[in-house]
Amino acid sequence: MKKAQNLWLYRIFAAGIICLVGLIVVTCGNGSTSSGDDGPKPGDLWTSPGGIEFSWIPAGTFTMGPDIWNNDATFSVTLSAFKMSRYAVTQELYEEVIGDNPSYYHGGSGRKPDGTEIQGMRPVETVSWFDAIEFCNKLSDREGLDRVYATSWSSPATHPITSGTVTADFTKNGYRLPTDAQWEYACCAGTSTKWHFGDDETKLVEYAWYSANSNNKTHQVGLLKPNQWSLYDMHGNVWEWCWDWYDDYPAGPETNYTSTGAGSIRVERGGSWGSTAEYTRSVSRVSFIPDFRNYFYLGFRLVRP
Q1: Would you say residue 9 lies in a domain?
Q2: Distance (Å, whole) CA 259 – CA 261
Q3: Which among 199, 191, 163 has a CA at the least distance from the CA of 280?
Q4: Of 185, 166, 187, the residue nearest 176 (C-alpha)
């Protein structure tokens, strides 16, 4: 009887400790992530009012870099939790919001999707950074959200924009592009290997459309394997615009890092259908001027707070 009472008291004590802690900390190979006991878990599905699927990305700290150009430069970044769209923005969604489809791989002669792939579910491409910013704002308007981006278009006043000034208020609840740090953190999903699945290049065809398997074209989003946080096509298919100016990495640790310089070129991530394996790595990044759109490798995906 006394033994049974002791066991009962032990269970109450253990349950009390769990309630008091109220926080789960998950240690990853490249940092740590945390979430409340009853909160969402890394990769959990969140669907927007318009039906866009997002993965919940937990708060955490990771080592960013080195990218393939910056030699061994790395730094520590701590990020707040956010949500990232599971897929790059599709041609169907882009046309629904903006009213046109600028994609080179539009399904016409010589540009058709492979096999039974759905044309509208291919990623939109041939879009500039300004196009992506405009899309985020218009999608925010459509769902009654506060715009993240304040814009002053120099030329022209309406779509397609070729120049202008854009500032961001990340306290707003609207749609936005991922920051450079958010993109790499979400792609790595707690790993520190060349790709989110490891270092074995022979497995890349299971996760990415790139020069070895793409047949020189884009492909319907979500057909290959996702990363650990249920994000698809983070390697390959289309390069993805990020918010940041392209800049050297800072020397010390940062929280919710974005590049501070006002440069002339914006970051792109992930590689594309035409990239070699090296350019699809989690740390790989390139850059283009923000009004550059005449390139059938360029797309983007979305973030929400």
Answers
A1: no
A2: 6
A3: 199
A4: 166
Measured CA to CA, the distance from residue 13 to residue 15 in angstroms comes to 6
Can you give the CATH number for the domain in which 299 is found?
3.90.1580.10
Domain around 263 = 30-304
Reference 301, options 80, 87, 97, 42; nearest CA is: 87
Task: With respect to residue 225, please indicate whether it lies within any of the assigned structural domains.
Answer: yes
pLDDT tens digit string along 45-99? 999 999 999 999 999 999 999 887 766 789 999 999 999 999 999 999 999 999 9
Distance CA 11, CA 211 (A): 57
- Number of domains, the chain: 1
User: What is the tens place of the pLDDT at every residue in 119-153?
Assistant: 999 999 999 999 999 999 999 999 999 999 999 98
Amino acid 1: pLDDT: 40
Cβ-based neighbours of 34, under 8 Å, separated by 6 or more: 23, 24, 25, 26, 58, 59, 60
Integer Cα distance of 188 and 8 in angstroms: 43
CB 299 within 8 A of CB 124: yes
Contact (CB, 8 A) for 267 and 244: yes
